[in-house]
Design a protein that fits this description.
Layout lengths: L1 H13 L3 H10 L13 H8 L1 H43 L12 H11 L1 H18 L2 H20 L5 H16 L1 H9 L16
């Protein structure tokens, strides 16, 4: 029961999408009408600018960390991972916003921070290197999603419970959410960092 409650709490927290909330409150708009249509940090950066993007990054990361913390209180490490996985699901398919959300990268980062900070540090280094060399945020996101499961399994070992299953499912979800980006990367049509629209100055 505690594991179920952890997962439920994670999903409800994950459904609080900060890019949608910010776009509605600050701009009387919906971020999903612009750019890639994605309700996340990168599309916020391209549509509204740096400060809104930072706020979205912090908010979406914090909800992932909070979900993992609550899950840990309810059901230990298995609960933390179950809540974290469902927080990513909630970000992608938010209950409060007609099940159309973002790609879950910042939320997943918050979950990893709340469950295994050393692995997050490794993934952050990998992400920054890939983005710095390629200028593709999506390539960095997909790369760290691929690296995450073996890194976490190497760091904490393999178990038959959520500690093993949830990181793998989380990585699969993030890669699946980037399927259109992967197609554009392969065709050479993906937007590089800084190549999108400038920030909107008006409401």
């Amino acid at each position: 029961m505690n594991l179920f409650l952890s997962a439920l709490a994670g999903y409800l927290l994950g459904s609080v999408n900060f890019s949608i909330i910010l776009s509605r409150l600050r701009y009387r708009d919906d971020i999903r009408r612009h750019g890639s249509g994605n309700a996340g940090m990168t599309n916020t950066l391209r549509t509204y600018g740096k400060l809104p993007a930072v706020l979205v990054l912090l908010g979406d990361g914090a909800k992932g960390m909070l979900a993992a913390w609550l899950g840990g209180l309810l059901a230990g490490l298995p609960g933390a991972y179950a809540a974290g996985l469902l927080a990513v699901v909630g970000h992608m398919f938010p209950l409060y916003f007609k099940f159309k959300g973002g790609k879950g990268v910042a939320t997943a980062a918050g979950v990893i921070l709340g469950t295994c900070p050393p692995v997050l540090l490794l993934l952050l280094v990998v992400f920054l290197l890939v983005v710095a060399l390629s200028r593709y945020v999506s390539l960095g996101s997909v790369t760290v999603a691929v690296v995450y499961p073996p890194a976490i399994l190497w760091y904490q070992g393999i178990s038959p419970g959520p500690e093993t299953v949830c990181p793998i499912l989380m990585a699969v979800l993030v890669i699946w959410a980037h399927r259109s980006n992967i197609k554009r990367l392969l065709s050479g049509t993906e937007n590089k960092l800084g190549a999108g629209k400038g920030p909107r100055l008006g409401p």
